[in-house]
Amino acid sequence: MRHAYIHLMLGALFATGLFAAPAQAAPVLCEKWGSASIQNGRYIVQNNVWGADTAQCVDVDQSGGFTITQAAHDNSTSGAPAAYPSIYAGCHYGACTTGSGLPMRADASGFGALRSSVTMTYPGSGTYNASYDLWFDPTPRTDGQNTGAELMIWLNRQGDIQPIGSRVATVTLAGSSWEVWYGNIGWNVISYVRTSPATSLDFAIDTFYADAVGRGHAQRSWYLTSVQAGFEPWIGGAGLAVGSFSLGSSTGTDTTPPGTPGAPSASGTTSTATTLSWGASTDSGGSGLAGYDILRATGDTFTRVGGSTTTSYTDTGLSPATTYRYRVRARDGAGNLSPESATVTVTTQQGGSGGGGCTATATTQTAWNNGYVVQPVTVTNDGAAPLDGWTVTFPLPSGHTITGMWNASHTVSGGTVTVRSLDHNGDLAPGASVGFGYQASRPSGNTQVPAGYTCA
To answer: Backbone phi, then psi, for 281, in 5-degree steps?
Structure first.
């Protein structure tokens, strides 16, 4: 019951010459690895029967789509699909289209303006999904298996099938509701499954990628290598069709910037971190709100220090006893930026120092898909006088919950955990240390652990 679009086998087929180069014009593709270049090389249609040896033929439409005319598939829904007949722009195992601009780094100036659209037709029978496949790699790869992230966008599914991994959230993106699934099969697979079927989609690539980045499953330094749209049939598949497909830039189409976000506020400030929250922006230009940029300044110049697809952000790695100023701006799917919000000023707490001060350093002992154990958190009296009790604070990432703590007591307020010594370990001579530990749960697939421990 899962998608498993494994390309490792495909790389070997290319290496042995079994994967045929795209034909110039092929009205019907029945070869297992057959493909055809259309619109003077702008797109490539591929038959791509990678998960079975059953027959499949696709009728290529030179105007920009294809129809599956024959499909004898009968794969078990507990395993991989039989194929991924699709149309794509970009580079896939050495076969590159012309004029796509891919590979492109996800922090490039033109990335926010990339848009794709598709229209699809579904038969009444068969077991399949109808999905985009967006591939990202840490390098500008044009051949071989991408190792960064695979983003799938399921417009529809029929039958007893599900994406790789487990469901971790439900979000609203590109004006619709989507289930978010996450798993890892040697690379991160983030799937967005529409909660109600659709036959078309027109969206900014960054709308979904920004959400994946915000969840810690993708990085802005990675490269988009290809944008693909098609179907994964397990059983049958004849009659599935892509009527139209496009990838291009929306620059010049939507020129209306989003509205100004609400004034930010700060909470949970420690010596090395603070959490910001603000009122949501709105977008009326048609390309949809893609996320927010967080701007920080210690002098006169504000620079971008991070991004968020929600209305909150935790900034870490700050210096103790330092004043920072923050603003927030919104961006839409066409790359338009809103005016900057009002400014909030934050002063971090004093760090541990001499004269009875203390420091806290943490070690992550173990971590798994939806939890972790941090121990020891070592509290050291680095001052010149004895300590009569100590308190450690740290920010808890959103969605995380402390499920147990030993050798200390704790409370949680907002996003801040406050840990206090017990009767038997609060007195520390200069240079002495003591440790405590805790276990926490986190959303499945989230890779964060707390940082920014402050001792007082």
So the answer is: -90, 165
